Amino acid sequence: MLKIDVHTHILPKDIPNWKDKFGYGGFITLDHHRPCCARMLKDDGKFFREIEDNCWSPVKRIEEMDGFGVDVQVLSTVPVMFSYWTEPKDGADIARFLNDGIAEIVAEFPQRFVGLGTLPMQDTDLALKELERCKQIGLAGVQIGTNVNQLNLSEPQFFEIFAACEKLGMAVFVHPWEMMGQAKMPKYWLPWLVGMPAETSRAICSLIFSGVLERLPNLRICFAHGGGSFPATIGRIAHGFDVRPDLCAVDNDQDPRKYVGQIYFDSLVHDAEALNNLLAFSDPEHVMLGTDYPFPLGELEPGKLIESMPYNDATKAKLLGGAALNWLDIAADRF
């Protein structure tokens, strides 16, 4: 069975000194303090994360992919690189740098990698320009955050970007970042354990209630981490829509459940019962292998959960690769 991992992150090995270039700080830098390892530093030197060469080396990634039986990885930047907080023109420069790097890897290894770009979402015109360029350089879609400087994705300035993605046939991958309430729960890694699932539901509900998914029925959009808390709370969301239409149905009068069949989800739920529930909520045509490689909160053995389940071969084939081909709009014979 073709195995496509739709949720993997990559960085350039060498990141420019954007602080010197742009005249202000706050950017991610890499400290290659020993062979095959680097420290990600944030906010002008504050330690953020330790990474290994599988975070930047396509050769190392292919070696590990072969070990796990992964045929294809979909590459996207690490969300901390979105840089929505920067001056728009600077964010556009960063996006171009990151997107060119991913496109070069895809061009070198077209049978092993598919690329997603990043956009300067803080400026609609610049985002549209970079989206078109992503298409031109061979990327299959874009990854965006669940919010843009704490603005919900329902804000009017983002609709044109989603509409362009639909028109251009570009897949969209929505990843949580800058989680709401993060400053109020610093202990126990709660922003990642509690905030991320809620952040993803925030994004889905924003796109449903604002009517974006109603107006763009052919938008191929996927949400990370199995849709976060959205599948588990759809009953509450739909009930709220029914009993308080004055608050929930102000921009779209359609039942929120209507859009479940339009949405793709990755399979990163870490639990057999949760995966069963996700498939009962959605279907195998809209759930795709995703691991968050190469980070520890991801699935450490890509595909293990799906392959361990008592599903028939046809269902497993969809989860491991078939649904991803549809989301990306790529033919299987490319690989």
Defining traits:
335 residues, TIM Barrel, eight-stranded parallel beta sheet, three-stranded antiparallel beta sheet, single chain, alpha/beta, 12 helices
Q: Your description of this structure?
A:
Helix content is 41%, strand content 18%. The chain has a single domain, classed as TIM Barrel, CATH 3.20.20. An 8-stranded parallel β-sheet has the order 1-5-6-7-10-11-12-13, with helices on both faces. Strands 2-3-4 form a 3-stranded antiparallel β-sheet, with no helix packed on it. It has a two-stranded antiparallel ribbon with strand order 8-9. The chain contains 12 helices and 13 strands. The mean pLDDT is 97. The chain has 335 residues and is an alpha/beta fold. The chain starts with a strand and ends in a 7-residue tail after the last helix.
What secondary-structure arrangement, pairings included, does this model have?
Blueprint: E1 4-10, H1 18-22, E2 29-34, E3 37-42, E4 46-52, H2 58-68, E5 72-77, H3 88-108, E6 113-117, H4 124-136, E7 141-145, E8 147-148, E9 151-152, H5 156-168, E10 171-175, H6 190-209, H7 212-215, E11 221-223, H8 230-243, H9 245-248, E12 263-266, H10 272-281, E13 287-288, H11 304-308, H12 313-328
Helix pairs in contact: 3-4, 4-5
